[in-house]
Amino acid sequence: MEKFVITGGKPLRGEVTISGAKNAAVGILPATILAADVCVVENLPDISDVAVSLKILSVLGAQIRMLDRNTYEIDTTHLTGTNVPDDLSRQMRASYYFLGALLSRFGKAQVAMPGGCNLGPRPIDQHLKVFSALGAEDSVDYGMITVRAKELNGAHIFFDKVSVGATMNGMLSAVMAKGQTILENCAKEPHVVDLANFLNMCGADVRGAGTDVIKVRGVEKMHGCTYSIIPDQIEAGSYMVAAAATGGDVLIKNVTPKHLEPITAKLRRAGITVEEFDDAVRVVAKGRLTSTQVKTLPYPGYPTDMQPQIGVVLALAKGTSTITESIFENRFKYLDELARMGANIKVEGNSATIEGVEKFTAARVSAPDLRAGAALCIAGLATEGITIVDDIVYIQRGYERFEEKLRSLGGIIEKVSSEKEIQKFKLKVG
Length: 430
Ligand code: EPZ
Prior knowledge:
There is one protein chain. By secondary structure, this protein is an alpha+beta fold. It is built from 15 helices and 23 strands. The strands form 6 sheets. Strands 21-22-1-23 form a 4-stranded mixed sheet, with helices on both faces. Helix 10 (about 305-315) links the parallel strand 17 (about 295) and strand 18 (about 320-325). The longest helix has 14 residues, at about 20-35. The protein is globular. Bound molecules: ligand EPZ. Ligand EPZ binds next to helix 1, helix 5, helix 6 and helix 12.
């Protein structure tokens, strides 16, 4: 089992370039199925969730050519499969997008109940609600979800809950349905807009993405395109927090500053300087950080995917902070790990009260999920001594070249897979 060994306590300094957005990529790759043609997708992050999505496309019959590390040509013309293999669908949450895309093109799809980070119950009733409104029938048998429709007809759907996945699946399944589909109470995240832009480049007619109401006029046929995925808001935010927690000075390049506003606002409240440029932000932290209150909300609120990272900053800030997690009930597991590093935190229901400490102490901790794993590495980088983060397989799902990028900022972090390598690292860093 691979782990990260980290020795911190030094400010991160320098420049880091952000990769393409994971949560856009995992929607756009299944969307290439709708083109039934050749698509070139650029700025794909080199992460395991993208590798799994490409594998699924390939198993379904797509011809895939890697043009460079972040660019793939995907030809879905002769794709025939409609069953996503069980082992692949369970490897990531986003396998549910294959349901919408395959249903739209072939009128049927079978995908295992999706896997992904364990953040508490993650129902997909809102996804099924769209499919059913468009005329599909669904069944769940032995953990396999099957959807089928003779034809899909436009419908008016009001989501009971704001859901990124259901909004994206709504667009995927409606683009070739007959007539108009109106989706209300939609998620407005940047990756929702990115998927809509990709679909429109392939000939779809999707309007309103980025607002509460998305209107989709069904088209008969779509075609291929060349598309470049937006920068990853959460990867960028994670490096912003890494700079803040270590008292560093980092220029974060290839970002859309507008997408980072909820994160920028909170970091400023915590006493950190954030300068915005056209496609970069610079984060400078000096002195002790100050406490603040954070509540996670759908975009443009503060993202749940940045909750553990800001938790690390607040655990080091002067005074009492609170975090309210309103999206996923199981997203505080990292706090137990952070407590092992000396953080002073009480959790009650979906609220955490944090009494900031001056510094953490190094410990061996375990990554409970993707973002929490990144947060614990950031905590390690802010801490003198050797921190070991176990279960880093989660981190590799969503951060391209994580340790390499941190090392380029002066972070001392290495991936190891045995106790012997940990000892070697200890000897090296003294
Ligand atoms: C997406 O998950 C992201 N995953 C998550 O990214 C992210 O945390 C989340 O959106 C919120 O921003 C991908 O894009 C692959 P939701 P998703 O549907 O689509 C409830 C990361 O670290 N809900 O917006 O699964 C749900 O339980 C991660 O990159 C229903 O009740 O999230 C939650 O409380 C992990 N019924 C809320 O809605 C449904 O049918 C929002 O979930 C669907 C969701």
